[in-house]
């Protein structure tokens, strides 16, 4: 059945199943893991660790999927493109994302690597030790795109992590090309400052040719600008795209346009439980506001409120009613 609903945002990213479990401190040492780090692992290691994750929570994850879930929670029309295999974890990813109200119709891959997963061990001090098997997500291909779906979206939002795979990067660029040819907006989140260093020239070219909106944290902004000085980085980034947003954690954020700088205050938070997802939810609030024609100031304020909401509990899913933030 053909879907004709207009979309606020379509996200393209690395589809990962998050497997979250609370463990005692000695489990980390027993399993030989580096505490409070994200380590890339192969399938054999993922299979070794998974049986130790008793009473776990399994849900759709990945930076871009988190953003789409938050947009849906804000009552926005969100869709997602990401590759999973036709296996146990692929079905978990699909079912969970659709249950959150996100349009997800990327066909299950019938061959190739298994569905990607991130095994997250949470110790009593709330620290996360993450073991990530990328799996099928980096095999995202142009065949996974639906041009009609892209053309229904006001904004196509690209996850920078796709740049670490030649095939996924090519797919992201194709999605942006289709969006621009349809007269729609394209947004990019830089994702990681090491990633930016690896792909600096490619990023700059993509932003120049396709991007209307760019999201970066302070370190990513510096990496893209090729400087250790934040003020110099902001000068370089200003005008690089129609809108550039740079976040500074508890210090707030700044929205850059070619002719203005709009400072946004961070929303006060009494108790930070888990900072995972803060950037993803910030992007969700901003993109939702932009799709609904909010002023840039109001987009930034909603973004800060969304980021503050997710860091007050464990996990990158809304626990409070995000709709209340719109009011």
From TrEMBL:
Protein name: Adenosine kinase
Taxonomic placement: Bacteria, Pseudomonadati, Pseudomonadota, Alphaproteobacteria, Holosporales
Family, as annotated: Belongs to the carbohydrate kinase PfkB family.
TM segment ranges: none
Gene Ontology terms for molecular function: kinase activity
Keywords, alphabetical: Kinase, Transferase
Record-linked Gene3D superfamilies: 3.30.1110.10, 3.40.1190.20
Annotated signal peptide: none
Domain (Carbohydrate kinase PfkB) ranges: 60-317
Pfam families reported for this sequence: PfkB
Claim: Transferase is one of the keywords in the record: yes
CDD domains reported in the protein's UniProt record: adenosine_kinase (cd01168)
SUPFAM superfamilies noted in UniProt: Ribokinase-like
């Amino acid at each position: 059945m053909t879907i004709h609903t207009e979309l606020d945002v379509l996200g393209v990213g690395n589809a990962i199943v998050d497997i979250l479990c609370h463990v005692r401190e000695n489990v980390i040492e027993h399993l030989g893991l580096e505490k409070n780090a994200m380590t890339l692992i192969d399938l054999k290691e993922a299979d070794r660790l998974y049986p130790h994750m008793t009473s776990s929570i399994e849900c759709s994850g990945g930076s871009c999927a988190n953003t789409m879930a938050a947009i849906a929670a804000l009552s926005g029309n969100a869709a997602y493109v990401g590759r999973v295999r036709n296996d146990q974890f692929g079905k978990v990813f699909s079912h969970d994302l659709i249950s959150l109200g996100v349009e997800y119709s990327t066909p299950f891959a019938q061959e190739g690597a298994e569905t990607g997963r991130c095994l997250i061990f949470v110790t009593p001090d709330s620290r996360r030790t993450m073991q990530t098997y990328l799996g099928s997500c980096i095999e995202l291909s142009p065949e996974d795109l639906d041009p009609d779906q892209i053309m229904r979206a006001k904004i196509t939002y690209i996850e920078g992590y796709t740049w670490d795979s030649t095939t996924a990067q090519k797919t992201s660029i194709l999605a942006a090309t289709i969006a621009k040819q349809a007269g729609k907006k394209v947004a990019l989140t830089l994702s990681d400052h090491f990633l930016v260093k690896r792909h600096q020239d490619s990023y700059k070219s993509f932003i120049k040719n396709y991007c209307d909106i760019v999201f970066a944290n302070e370190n990513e902004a510096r990496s893209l600008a090729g400087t250790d000085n934040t003020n110099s980085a902001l000068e370089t980034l200003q005008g690089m795209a129609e809108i550039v947003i740079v976040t500074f954690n508890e210090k707030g954020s700044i929205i850059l346009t070619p002719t203005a700088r709009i400072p946004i205050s961070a929303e006060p938070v009494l108790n930070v439980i888990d900072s995972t997802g803060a950037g993803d939810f910030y992007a969700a609030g901003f993109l939702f506001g932009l799709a609904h024609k909010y002023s840039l100031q109001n987009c930034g304020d909603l973004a800060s409120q969304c980021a503050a909401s997710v860091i007050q509990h464990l996990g990158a899913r809304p626990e409070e009613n995000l709709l209340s933030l719109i009011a």
